[in-house]
Specification:
Helix 10 links the parallel strand 18 and strand 19. By secondary structure, this protein is an alpha/beta fold. 35% of the residues lie in helices and 21% in strands.
């Protein structure tokens, strides 16, 4: 018995001793600034080595393993973000000059051990390297001072639709990759920035949702859950929670959200760049500006603008910036933003419309003096406008020096010729930030011009991950090769990446950031894609490596977010690498075949999810472009009035299946907010094209619902359509006060569920066009017309018009029930004229079905 107790005691003692010996202490040295990095390291190491224990302490524990996080402020570090990791037998030291350097050291160590961090997800190592202190000797440093993540407010598939948790994940994951600054852009109507001057508050727009706000093609719908694939949504409205507030609270709610976002970025040690429009009409609020005295104003193109040189003008700008920095004290860089300066007057905005003769007389002397000192310049647009903008830059700097002098100032716009245009006019203590689409590696003249500009001022180049006007879905852009070398050639202080969505663009962010760190400088796109594939494998598999190279180099980029149409039906798909929709399909089938050759047993858990995601994505692409090919063929036949031929192609289209396939693909992976936004985009800006073409040939009824429709007078390129989805998932085009110039109302219950839940109130003669979902004429033939009324006493005359000609006449609504009629049309412009016989007629909707 004693022997048994001794053995049990020995085993327990050995287990406890082993547990103590296996515990590793992460030492902060009582520095609160590295506490978060220490917690991150303990959490990730615990996940990497689950049989070991990791604990954060303030002082080393003797006779134990310690990982020391040491800030060395006076150790001669030239780079504030450089780190070194030195291993000894029982000590591992992560050191650098700043808390940010220590944090980058922590994630540098984790990457060394096998972790793969991406913007929308992370991949733990299947076979991590052993945590052997003696074998670890690392150091790394960024080669560019500022590295910017830039999500642009305008689409609900981008950060406009984000809640705080999405912002938080974006910031945290971006930091782990290596970025050190976040950037946001505010159009003049963005409710996250408002101010009051002379007792008048600046007019505000909306953070767009599927029921409010119209910026850049936003369409509205009664209940997103009823859309194809909409089962992934848990609320009838899609958008940021900060946007789902009463109108009068939209600015405080948006501001409160962004305050939390910027506080989190600051806590992570990241800079905050706030980009503020200054040149467009909604950034020059007339309700505020017109309170200034006339001598403080400059009129251009019918708008009053504020003269920054006038004392009252400066007070106006000071009110603007004082409120901005009161709301967001975390801002480290302010970027007034202008449209791309152009010599074409139709492409310019208010401030860039100036001719030398429209400048105030006292400015003209300064302007011509600059031209005199720069003999290569002549007096033409955009130079007078850029000179005018320089006055805003000047007053911004003066105000910043008064209220927050440490804030940097940079002027931002599109394209790399902008800095060269602007350089002679903008003071040298203002930097430039420029969006660039094209690879300029071989453009020696432009590189040399930018290098000269950047010798005198800070310059940051912003590259695109995707494009809102024609490449919002699919693979990301191929990053510029030898990117760090290019930045060196143009003397750039740093760079940034503009984007809206994240997955499946992740690799681009990782590649660009790797290219500007010492240990991975100029990393090739091929190398990054190979590493991406290998991180998803338990065992090497050449097929997966081959697939990802093919995907990231050659997969399509398609779709637009900027207007009413996601993919214009009358235009065949053409982009580099492809000549037709069918070629896109064939290439996707080849990639799909390659992907199916991957052995699933070789994949780790994350790899299997990404594998299934890409299986679904390739099938979605095949379905999408098969649909588009058939749609395009039908569209061409209809142009030639060959309806029967068009119908044969329309019967081959199944867009709802395509959308459902995308919904399942993203939900199985764990849909990102951007992917959910794209699902909505296809439902409200792509599917209607297919409904429309079915209606044009009589395959689907015309359905019109009457309800109040929401519009946004401050929106840019506003969306024009509102849709009602009934319980049978049928699409109805909704028309209201703006569309018909008559009162619209509802029963007050949201979401609208039944066609009779809303209506228009017709008090006088009212004309309602009978057109397709996209405003096309109907084919000629016989139709059944149904009018849905609400309530009793809706007696009215209904006249069916073909152009100016009456083709049918009947009375309706006397019993308050639906009215039915037949009509025959030749296919000209068709409408109905409703004339009340009493005071008010309430019409909820109508349906027009082709009979032949």
């Amino acid at each position: 018995m004693k022997l048994q107790l001794f053995i049990l005691f020995f085993v327990l003692f050995g287990f406890i001793a082993c547990s103590v010996q296996d515990k590793t202490y992460i030492v902060t040295g009582q520095k609160e600034s590295v506490a978060e990095a220490a917690d991150d390291l303990a959490r990730y190491l615990s996940a990497t080595y689950p049989r070991q224990k990791f604990e954060v302490v303030t002082q080393p524990i003797s006779d134990s393993k310690n990982i020391l996080l040491e800030i060395e402020e006076d150790a001669g570090w030239e780079n504030n973000e450089a780190f070194k990791i030195l291993g000894e037998e029982n000590r591992l030291i992560i050191k650098g000059k700043t808390p940010r350097a220590i944090a980058y050291g922590v994630f540098g160590l984790l990457k060394h051990l096998g972790w793969n961090f991406n913007l929308s997800f992370q991949i733990p190592p299947d076979n991590p390297k052993p945590l052997d202190f003696l074998s670890i000797n690392l150091e790394n440093e960024p080669l560019k001072e500022r590295r910017i993540l830039f999500n642009w407010h305008n689409f609900i598939s981008g950060c406009t639709g984000w809640n705080y948790e999405h912002w938080e994940q974006w910031i945290d994951n971006g930091f782990k990759i290596g970025f050190n600054t976040i950037m946001v852009h505010a159009y003049g109507n963005n409710p996250m920035h408002s101010f009051t001057f002379n007792g008048v508050e600046k007019e505000m727009g909306f953070l767009s949702t599927t029921q409010h706000g119209r910026d850049w093609g936003t369409q509205h719908v009664n209940d997103v859950r009823l859309l194809p694939g909409g089962e992934i949504f848990d609320h009838y409205v899609f958008g940021s929670r900060a946007a789902m507030v009463p109108d009068e609270k939209r600015s405080p709610a948006a501001t409160a959200l962004m305050q939390e976002v910027f506080k989190h970025a600051d806590a992570k040690g990241m800079g905050v760049c706030f980009s503020l429009d200054v040149d467009v009409w909604m950034a020059n609020p007339q309700n505020v500006i017109n309170t200034l005295p006339e001598e403080a104003l400059i009129e251009i193109d019918g708008y009053n603008t504020v003269n920054p040189d006038h004392p009252e003008g400066k007070n106006y700008y000071k009110a603007q910036l004082t409120q901005l920095f009161s709301d967001y004290p975390e801002i480290t860089m302010l970027t007034p933003w202008i449209r791309h300066p152009s010599k074409n007057p139709t492409q310019n905005t208010i401030w860039l419309l100036h001719e030398s003769g429209t400048l105030p007389l006292e400015w003209q002397k300064e302007y011509f003096e600059i031209l005199k000192n720069n003999p290569d310049l002549i007096d033409e647009r955009p130079y007078p406008g850029l000179f005018a903008v320089s006055k805003i830059v000047k007053v911004y700097r003066e105000i910043l020096d008064e209220i927050k002098p440490e804030v940097e100032l940079s002027l931002g716009s599109w394209d790399l010729d902008f800095p060269i245009y602007a350089d002679p006019f903008i003071q040298e203590d203002c930097g430039f930030i420029s969006l660039v689409e094209d690879n300029i590696s071989d453009n020696t003249g432009l590189i040399e011009g930018l290098a000269r500009v950047a010798e005198r001022r800070d310059f940051h180049m912003i590259v695109w991950a995707q494009h809102d006007s024609h490449r919002i879905m699919g693979r990301p852009y191929i990053p510029f090769p030898n990117f760090n070398n290019l930045l060196e050639k143009i003397n750039a202080k740093g760079y940034g990446i503009i984007h809206w969505t994240t997955h499946p663009l992740d690799l681009l962010f990782t590649n660009y950031e790797n290219q500007v760190w010492e240990n991975t400088a100029n990393e090739t796109w091929e190398k990054s894609s190979e590493n991406f594939a290998l991180s998803m494998l338990k065992n090497k598999n050449k097929k997966l490596v081959e697939y990802y190279k093919e995907w990231y180099f050659n997969a399509p980029m398609f779709g637009r977010e900027t207007e009413d149409y996601f993919f214009v039906p009358g235009v065949e798909y053409q982009m580099e690498g492809y000549t037709s929709s069918l070629e896109v399909v064939e290439k996707a089938k080849e990639r799909l075949k390659l992907l199916k050759e991957v052995k699933k047993s070789a994949l780790n858990r994350t790899g299997l999810k990404e594998y299934n995601y890409h299986l679904g994505l390739e099938k979605f692409i095949i379905s999408f472009f098969n649909n588009h090919h058939n749609m395009h063929q039908a569209f061409q036949f209809l142009k030639d009035e060959k309806t029967d031929e068009a119908i044969q192609y329309i019967k081959l289209t199944h867009p709802e299946e395509t959308i459902n396939l995308f919904s399942k693909t993203i939900s199985d992976f764990g849909a990102t907010r951007g992917e959910e936004g794209l699902l909505l985009s296809m439902n409200t800006r792509w599917l209607p094209d297919y409904i429309c073409i079915r209606q044009r040939v009589g395959m689907e009824p015309i359905r019109i619902n009457f309800q109040p429709t929401s519009h946004d007078p401050l929106a840019q390129k506003p969306g024009n359509f509102t849709y009602f989805i009934d319980s049978d998932k049928n699409f109805w085009l909704s028309l209201g006060e703006k569309e018909l110039n008559t009162k619209a109302a509802t029963n007050g219950q949201l979401p609208l569920k039944d066609i009779n839940d809303s209506w228009i109130e017709i008090a006088g003669e009212t004309i309602i066009p009978l057109k397709t979902m996209r405003n096309h004429k109907l084919r000629g033939g016989e139709y059944d017309l149904v009018l849905h009324f609400v309530g009793q006493n809706n007696a009215c005359k209904v006249i069916v018009m073909e152009g100016e000609k009456e083709i049918s006449y009947f009375t309706a609504g006397k019993s308050g029930t639906d009215a039915k009629a037949k009509l025959v049309t030749s296919g000209s412009e068709l409408s109905i004229k409703i004339i009340p016989e009493g005071e008010i007629v309430k019409v909820a909707g109508l349906m027009l079905a082709f009979k032949n």
